[in-house]
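Subject: design request, 294 residues
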């Protein structure tokens, strides 16, 4: 996978945090697949991986009818926030956290993609101020999400693809999620699709892959452990929503060969992915609305 750089400026008014899905079970079981549970340690030398085998069972629903979604099961990670756009500066504020991004004129190869890029970013909280400097500079800030344990997820667009950066407000550490999936040449994944924090803020689930592909991943921010959940390619993961118990989450997949959105449920307890069935346009939109938006 090639690395996807984080920030872009094309549509700085758009900040979308992924989150959606619904739940349903099925009776027909497919063969089990082995996947990796990888511990990630951020060091100067790069990402260190320790592999463990995990068994994932995938069930496929046989009923092709539109799936009925129970919205009462979902955790809604939407804190009230305020966004102010003034000239070449964007300010996002919620609770005691303020994020500021400044735009500047694009130069060189950047100018072929956009007139402006995100030059600098900073996050200020009661714990202090942190600067975020990304190279290459992103075109756009897509979304921000604050977890319950003082972590900020920052999603940005690049010339090709997107990046997700996790900022620990307590310790000051910054982690680029794209680097959890690396090519033989050392480059990270090209894009991060939908993402969402667990109810306790200890984990974040996301779609990760190169352009045209998307796999489910989960990162435990306390243990610094990354789990590549399944080798199944979901093409595009448009939303992810955790259940209130924090032990499972739903996600929505849209493939190239069909515009129909499909709902899946991943259970950490059962280590299984269940395909619940097709979603109506209305449910697809409602699930998307469970996530924060800039």
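Subject: RE: design request

Done. Sequence follows.
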């Amino acid at each position: 996978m090639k690395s996807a750089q984080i920030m872009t400026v094309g549509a700085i008014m758009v900040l979308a945090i992924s989150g959606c899905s619904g739940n349903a079970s099925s009776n027909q079981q497919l063969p089990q697949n082995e996947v990796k549970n990888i511990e990630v340690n951020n060091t100067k030398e790069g990402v260190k991986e320790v592999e463990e085998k995990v068994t994932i069972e995938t069930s496929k629903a046989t009923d092709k009818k539109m799936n009925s979604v129970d919205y009462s099961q979902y955790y809604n990670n939407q804190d009230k926030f305020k966004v102010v756009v003034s000239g070449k500066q964007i300010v996002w504020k919620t609770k005691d956290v303020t994020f500021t991004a400044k735009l500047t004129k694009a130069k060189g190869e950047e100018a072929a993609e956009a007139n402006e890029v995100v030059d600098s970013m900073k996050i200020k909280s009661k714990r202090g101020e942190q600067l975020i400097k990304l190279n290459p500079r992103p075109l756009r800030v897509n979304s921000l999400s604050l977890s319950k344990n003082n972590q900020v997820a920052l999603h940005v667009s690049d010339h090709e693809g997107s990046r997700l950066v996790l900022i620990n407000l307590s310790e000051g550490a910054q982690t680029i999620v794209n680097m959890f999936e690396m090519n033989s040449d050392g480059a990270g994944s090209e894009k991060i699709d939908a993402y969402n924090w667990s109810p306790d803020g200890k984990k974040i689930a996301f779609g990760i892959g190169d352009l045209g592909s998307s796999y489910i991943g989960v990162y435990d921010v306390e243990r610094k452990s990354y789990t590549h959940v399944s080798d199944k390619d979901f093409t595009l993961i448009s939303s992810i929503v955790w259940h209130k118990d924090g032990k499972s989450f739903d996600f929505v997949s849209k493939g190239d060969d069909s515009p129909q959105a499909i709902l899946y449920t991943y259970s950490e307890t059962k280590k299984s992915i269940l395909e619940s069935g097709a979603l109506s346009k209305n449910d697809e939109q409602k699930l998307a609305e469970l996530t924060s938006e800039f």
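The chain has one helix and 19 strands.
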